[in-house]
């Protein structure tokens, strides 16, 4: 079963986008190879829902966080090798020799560049094979080729490097030109005998690129790793959570369970509600990827997906107002939770596109209804603190707020969660402090 996160959620949380320097993808995109970037992209597109797979990947990243490593291969050589493998395939040694001889003859007669390109591709393959050999020897000397996350790569590399005909090429001087017979033999090995193993080795190398890159980010940012629990545990316990893009961000802790599945959040404008909610969504998404998280610790039961409603746009083409777009978003979530899916849901300022009376009634009714789906967890924020007072009798709703401290006429925000409901409203104070009324 695939993890659910639709485009609205991905956009709200700024999870994807290699060309968006503010995205969470860009935060982790320290890879050295194009293939590594593609592997990273697939990991972001496919969070996992199997406990063992999540925890296993977390352990790999944890290893590379705790054991610093540099990516040991030349990206240009890897790219050239991949291109050569994709363009060539040989079935027999005789055919390989015939083609190489023909290409060399054409190069001398017509200045055809095919033979030169062949040589460049083969030399790139040799460069990578030598680098693989050097890495494998280091791993074996240090005892890391078994029992560590290096083992999968080492096993795949060994399938090629321990082939009886590999030694003759690996022991050649690095700058020595290949003869016609050597070129033909290497072409047959690379494009024929070893091709499938080499493609698998390259994929393992791309994965290694991702492991080293993500582990480096985790070490530099002091991120931790979540522990996934079965769905039946129905819990989430997060300590010292912050937005992963805020190195000096204020941390907060929160929990969910069957007995407390709704976090009702109040606070003034600029108090940090949206940032907290986005941080929680990013936290859980990364946790289902097995990635490091911006928290002191996190333990969670596996969920089916995340839905958010933070920046819901209107739709001029369909004639949807902002309010109607909000209603459709709530309807979508209602349909999903009604199908007994286990979801983490973020509603930031429910029904802000309508009048206060309708917003009050709708927020109260929807929150009370969602509270009954105890297998799902909700964070619902609002400026209408009166809704909170009306929800006091709901046993599974917890009330928290982000306070504002007034220093004279200037508000100061602590960004630190407290229990309860706040009645803070500083909108007019901010307007007056900016001198808007004086200008008018």
Automatic annotation (TrEMBL):
Pfam families the record matches: MutS_V
Identify the residues that the record assigns to the DNA mismatch repair proteins mutS family domain, covering every copy.
260-438
Question: Which key words are in the record?
Answer: ATP-binding, DNA-binding, Nucleotide-binding
User: Entry's SMART domains?
Assistant: MUTSac
Q: Extract the SUPFAM superfamilies matched here.
A: DNA repair protein MutS, domain III, P-loop containing nucleoside triphosphate hydrolases
Q: Which Gene3D superfamilies does this UniProt record tie to the protein?
A: 1.10.1420.10, P-loop containing nucleotide triphosphate hydrolases
Name of the protein: DNA mismatch repair proteins mutS family domain-containing protein
Natural source organism: Chitinophaga chungangae
């Amino acid at each position: 079963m695939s993890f659910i996160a639709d485009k609205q959620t991905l956009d709200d949380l700024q999870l994807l986008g290699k060309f968006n320097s503010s995205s969470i993808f860009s935060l982790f995109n320290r890879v050295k190879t194009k293939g590594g970037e593609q592997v990273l992209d697939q990991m972001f597109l496919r969070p996992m829902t199997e406990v063992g797979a999540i925890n296993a990947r977390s352990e790999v990243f944890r290893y590379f966080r705790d054991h610093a490593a540099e990516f040991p291969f030349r990206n240009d050589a890897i790219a050239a090798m991949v291109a050569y493998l994709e363009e060539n395939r040989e079935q027999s040694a005789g055919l390989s020799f015939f083609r190489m001889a023909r290409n060399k003859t054409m190069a001398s007669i017509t200045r055809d560049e095919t033979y030169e390109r062949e040589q460049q591709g083969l030399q790139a393959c040799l460069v990578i094979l030598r680098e693989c050999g050097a890495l494998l020897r280091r791993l074996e000397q240090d005892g890391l080729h078994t029992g560590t996350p290096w083992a999968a790569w080492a096993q795949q590399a060994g399938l090629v490097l321990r082939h009886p005909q590999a030694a003759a090429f690996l022991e050649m001087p690095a700058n020595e030109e290949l003869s016609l017979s050597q070129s033909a033999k290497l072409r047959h090995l690379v494009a024929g005998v070893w091709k499938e193993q080499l493609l698998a080795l390259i994929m393992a190398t791309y994965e290694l690129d991702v492991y080293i890159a993500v582990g480096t980010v985790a070490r530099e940012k002091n991120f931790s790793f979540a522990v996934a629990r079965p769905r039946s545990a129905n819990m989430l316990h997060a300590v010292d959570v912050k937005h992963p893009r805020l190195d000096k961000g204020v941390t907060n802790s929160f929990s969910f369970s069957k007995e407390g599945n709704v976090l009702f959040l109040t606070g003034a404008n600029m108090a940090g509600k949206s940032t907290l909610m986005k941080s929680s969504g990013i936290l859980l998404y990364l946790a289902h990827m097995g990635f490091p998280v911006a928290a002191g610790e996190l333990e969670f039961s596996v969920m089916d997906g995340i839905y958010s409603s933070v920046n819901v746009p209107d739709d001029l083409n369909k004639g949807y107002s902002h309010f109607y777009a909000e209603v459709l978003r709530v309807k979508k979530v209602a349909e999903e939770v009604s199908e007994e899916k286990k979801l983490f849901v973020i509603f930031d300022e429910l029904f802000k596109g309508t009048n206060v009376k309708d917003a009050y009634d709708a927020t109260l009714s929807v929150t009370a209804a969602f509270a009954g789906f105890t297998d799902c967890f909700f964070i619902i924020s609002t400026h209408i603190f009166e809704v909170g007072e009306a929800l006091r009798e709901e046993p599974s709703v917890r009330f928290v707020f982000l306070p504002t401290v007034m220093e004279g006429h200037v508000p100061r925000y602590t960004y630190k969660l407290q229990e309860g409901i706040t009645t803070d409203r500083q909108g007019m104070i901010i307007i007056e402090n900016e001198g808007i009324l004086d200008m008018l």
